[in-house]
Structure formats: structure tokens, C-alpha cells
Write a structure and sequence with these properties.
The chain has about 525 residues and is of the alpha+beta class. Among the domains are: about 90 residues, Immunoglobulin-like, CATH 2.60.40; about 100 residues, Helix Hairpins; about 110 residues, no CATH class. About 20% of the residues lie in helices and about 40% in strands. The strands form six sheets. Strands 1, 2, 4, 7, 10, 12 and 13 form a seven-stranded mixed beta sheet that branches. The protein has a six-stranded mixed beta sheet with strand order 19-16-15-22-25-24, with no helix packed on it. It has a five-stranded mixed beta sheet with strand order 14-9-8-17-18, with no helix packed on it. α1 packs antiparallel against α2.
Length: about 525
């Protein structure tokens, strides 16, 4: 004789769930870790409690429960259960809001107007056929010798008058339909914002604990939830020789529950990014003898090299926040509230003021615009992640730029827009020559920069504009790059090792200057590719 047995679950008491509000949130790059804290009044023995409601989007495998108080109690089981609440019947008309009644009235009026528009189109089509038949009758009658001009003219006038009247009614209906569509859209948006219906799927946390004695105990619940993300944003205010930089976080969340007065932590960690060590492949190095033709010639080519600055090397193809390859953590100095509406909410993080220096710079080979570049040091005490920055100066908002990744204490450059009262025109000229004995090739390039300043009447004072041009840098001894200083007018102020040539040009109001750069590329006879 055998008997079948099955485990008996501990029943959940049919009581109101214990509220478990969100107290702290760690917002990651594409999700959030939510922390809940609650004090439970336990009884001795094994009991099962229901807490919530919680977001139905909570990830089950990340749910963790921890008893924080020094109490002889143990967590036996914790899980998330979800309940489906079907939508109830439509409320009666006397319980509908004014917005719903307005939407209903607008939809009925639009439906009636659409029917009227269809009838008007039908009438206009019939009148068009009637006019065609009348014109055909007039043509046939005139061909057979009939002469009823008075009747024909009266009938044509009557048809044209009726077509004009129906066309005017159609235009009135079309205009009203356009106005109705705009009003209906605004009313529906207002209703969506003010009368958001409750979620159909609701989650609760079922907790099974065993307590040796009765008494209060603190519980800490943590879990991950999707549909939440953040990105850095900045606001730079330039006031003379000082700059104030405000660091904010733009936070979006649509998790199904609001975050009210929570401790917010922002992290660039990518918890869902799977990593694995790179596979090692075999790399063979072989040597071979060069041919006689290869020994006689040297192939060269021009390539573009990006000049590196301070900061980490950017990782190509890396999505999201540029954190330099290392997870960064920022904290909000005060409690914040972020509703679950899917909109961007600005959270202040830090603000500092630092001395700033301005420079009016132009690189005509890249752009003919003269840009105001502001330099200052990062005194925020934390890294500045790459993100958009709103630029504000004396005249107000002047545009939006981009702030690159910057470590604490490192210099920062911000472009505050171009100057409309400056103009730069660039002209280039190239000549090629070969010497007879050594068969060397000499390429001479001349660059002329015409700089103008347009000033308002009464404007005084000179303005220094920094012009930058570049010359090639040779990596082989067979090719030599020479700057012809006697041909340059004026002589460059600085020529660095990267081939960047710089002039500091002072322009008075309404002034004009021409800057000339001349350099040579000298290649030996065995060089090919120039």
C-alpha cells in the first residue's frame, strides 16, 4: 500500500500588504538597483508576510532580503509574486471627468463632420457630371442649329453657383476638422497626464521568516529593475574671467512606481555587459629579402594622425557614458524624487567656480569660423563624464556644446560659439620642381590666410586671434619638411613638434591682416608617392 504526499505551503494571511517604499536607488547606465527598508513586527515561529506593492518589472533572480537588526530571526524564502488585475467596465457618464466628456464630444463632432464631408464630395462629383452633361448638350444643340443661349446661360450659372456654394461648405468643414484634430490631440494628452490608469500587473514580495522570539526587526530588500537610465549634463556660465560649471544628471525611469525622497547614487557600471578574456592566436613573423627594385625606391604616403590630449583613450563602439573604461560613482547631495513618467528629470550633483582664460581661435583648414575657447581647471572633486553642456554668458543662453571626459584637476576646454564679426578666407598654392643633378623633388606649398574684423561704430580695443595651420611631419629620412621663414609673413610665433604653426594676430576694430605660410617637401630621387 502506497500513499502520495505533497508539501503544504505556508498560507499567506489575507491582510493588507505591508508597505515597502523605495528608500535608495543606484541608477546604472541602463537599469537601476532599488533598495527598500522596512521594520517588521515579527511573532515567534515561522510566518509568511506580503510586502508591497512593488514594480512588476523587478528582476526575480536579483531579489535579496537581509535582516538588519540584531534579532534572532532567519529569512527562509523570498520571492516576487505578480497578480493580474483586469480592467473594470467603463464608468458611467456621471462619473466621467470633464476631459473624458470633452474627448467624447469632440470625437462625435468629428465623426459627424467626416460624414458631412463625404456627402459634400458626392454632391460636388454629381454637380461636375451635371456640368459636363450640360456642356455636351449645348455642343450637340449648337451643332444641330439650335439657339437657346438664354436657357443655356441660366442653367450654367445655376450649376456654377451651386458648385461654389458646396465648395465653400466643404472648405468650412475641412477647416473645422483641422481645428478639431488639434484640440482633440491636446485634450487627449492632458487626459493621459492627469488620468493615468493603474497598472494591470502588480507585484508583491512574499517573505517567509522564522523568529525565535517576537519583536521588531529591520528588513532590507534589494533588486534590479529595467526601464531606468541616466546621463550626465552640464551648464557652464561665463562671467568675465571666471566660469561656473554645474554638473547635473538627467534621469529617466518608467519602472511603474515613483521614487520619492530617495538617496540617489549614479554609476557607470554595465552589469549586463558580458566580458571574457580575448582569445590568443598564433602570430608568425617572417623575414624575406627585398628585391632590387624595392631597395631602390621608398614608398611614402600622407596619413592623418590625431594628436592625443590628457584623459583616457576613447573606446570605439562603446555605447552609453564614456567613463574612461573604469566604473565611476556619483552621489546626489540631497534626497530626490523621480516620478515614473518616462520623462527627463534634472538632478543637481555639484557646482564650482574656477578662473577661466578666453582665446579667440581659428583653424582655417578645418573651419573658417573664429571661435571663443574658454580654458579652466576641473575643481569639482570628481571626474567630468562626457556629455552635453549648456553655454551661458553675459547675453544669456548662447548655445550647446560637448564636454569631454576630464579627470579631477585636469584642464578643460569649452567652445562658446563662433564670432559673427570675424571672417577668415584661406587660399592655397602648390608648385613642384626637380633638380637636375640629384633628381630631388621639391614641392612648395603656400597658404594665405585673410583675416577681417567687422566692428560696430564706436568699438575700441584690439582683439588677438590665434591662427593655427599645420605642416606635414616626416617619419623617414628620405623626405624632409622645411619651413621657409623668409617666405612667411609674418614669421610664426610657435611651431611645435606635431607640425602645428601658430600666429597671434592682433586686429583693431575694422582691421584686416593677411598671414602667409610657405613650406617645402624635399624628397630624394628614390622616393615614390609624393
Amino acid at each position: 500500500m502506497s500513499t502520495d504526499s505533497k508539501p503544504i505551503a505556508v498560507p499567506v494571511p489575507d491582510t493588507v500588504p505591508i508597505p515597502a517604499p523605495v528608500t535608495a536607488v543606484t541608477c546604472l547606465e541602463d537599469r537601476a538597483q532599488v533598495e527598500r527598508s522596512v521594520v517588521l513586527d515579527l511573532e515567534a515561529g515561522v510566518q509568511r508576510l506580503r510586502l508591497g506593492p512593488v514594480s512588476a518589472l523587478a528582476v526575480d533572480r536579483t531579489l535579496h532580503a537581509e535582516l538588519t537588526a540584531d534579532h534572532p530571526a532567519t529569512v527562509l524564502d523570498v520571492r516576487i509574486v505578480r497578480g493580474w488585475t483586469p480592467r473594470g467596465p467603463e464608468p458611467s457618464p456621471d462619473k466621467n471627468s470633464a476631459l473624458r466628456l470633452r474627448v467624447h464630444a469632440l470625437e462625435e463632432e468629428r465623426f459627424a463632420l467626416m460624414q458631412r464631408r463625404d456627402r459634400l464630395y458626392t454632391r460636388l462629383d454629381l454637380l461636375g457630371r451635371l456640368a459636363a452633361d450640360l456642356l455636351r448638350e449645348i455642343g450637340e444643340g449648337a451643332g444641330s442649329g439650335e439657339s437657346e443661349g438664354t436657357r443655356w446661360a441660366a442653367e450654367l450659372d445655376r450649376v456654377d453657383a451651386e458648385r461654389d456654394a458646396q465648395g465653400e461648405r466643404l472648405r468650412t468643414v475641412e477647416a473645422r476638422l483641422t481645428a478639431l484634430a488639434a484640440e482633440l490631440g491636446e485634450t487627449q494628452r492632458a487626459m493621459d497626464l492627469s488620468e493615468e490608469e493603474p497598472a494591470e500587473l502588480v507585484g508583491h514580495v512574499e517573505l517567509t521568516v522564522e523568529a525565535a522570539a517576537a519583536g521588531p526587526v529591520g528588513l532590507r530588500l534589494t533588486h534590479l529593475v529595467p526601464c531606468a537610465l541616466w546621463r550626465p549634463a552640464y551648464r557652464a556660465v561665463l562671467d568675465g574671467d571666471s566660469l561656473t560649471l554645474e554638473t547635473d544628471a538627467m534621469v529617466w525611469q518608467r519602472t511603474g512606481e515613483d521614487w520619492s525622497d530617495v538617496r540617489l547614487t549614479l554609476s557607470t557600471a554595465r552589469s549586463a555587459l558580458a566580458t571574457e578574456p580575448p582569445s590568443l592566436g598564433e602570430d608568425r613573423l617572417t623575414l624575406k629579402e627585398r628585391t632590387a627594385a624595392e631597395r631602390r625606391t621608398v614608398d611614402v604616403e600622407l596619413r592623418e594622425e590625431e594628436i592625443g590630449d590628457l584623459g583616457p583613450v576613447p573606446v570605439l563602439g562603446l555605447p552609453g557614458v564614456d567613463d574612461g573604461g573604469e566604473a565611476r560613482v556619483l552621489k546626489s547631495p540631497a534626497s530626490v524624487s523621480v516620478p515614473s513618467d518616462g520623462r527627463a528629470h534634472r538632478v543637481p550633483l555639484s557646482v564650482f567656480t574656477a578662473p577661466a582664460s578666453s582665446e579667440y581661435a581659428c583653424s582655417p583648414e578645418v573651419s573658417p569660423l573664429v571661435t571663443q575657447v574658454v580654458r579652466f581647471d576641473n575643481r569639482s572633486g570628481h571626474v567630468l563624464l562626457a556629455g552635453p553642456v549648456d553655454l551661458v554668458r553675459g547675453s544669456g543662453f548662447s548655445g550647446r556644446g560637448t564636454l569631454e571626459f576630464t579627470t579631477p584637476g585636469a584642464p578643460v576646454e569649452l567652445a562658446f560659439g563662433s564670432r559673427d564679426d570675424h571672417r577668415v578666407v584661406r587660399e592655397t598654392e602648390e608648385t613642384r620642381d626637380s633638380t637636375g643633378i640629384t633628381q630631388r623633388t621639391v614641392v612648395t606649398r603656400t597658404v594665405r590666410l585673410h583675416l577681417s574684423r567687422f566692428s560696430a561704430p564706436g568699438e575700441r580695443g584690439e582683439r588677438v586671434v590665434v591662427l593655427r595651420e599645420r605642416i606635414p611631419v616626416s617619419e623617414v629620412s628620405a623626405v624632409e619638411v622645411r619651413l621657409r621663414k623668409e617666405g612667411c609673413s609674418p614669421a610664426p610665433d610657435v611651431v611645435d613638434a606635431e607640425g602645428i604653426v601658430r600666429w597671434d594676430v592682433a586686429l583693431p576694430p575694422g582691421g584686416r591682416r593677411t598671414v602667409t605660410l610657405v613650406y617645402e617637401l624635399v624628397a630624394s630621387a628614390k622616393v615614390a608617392g609624393i
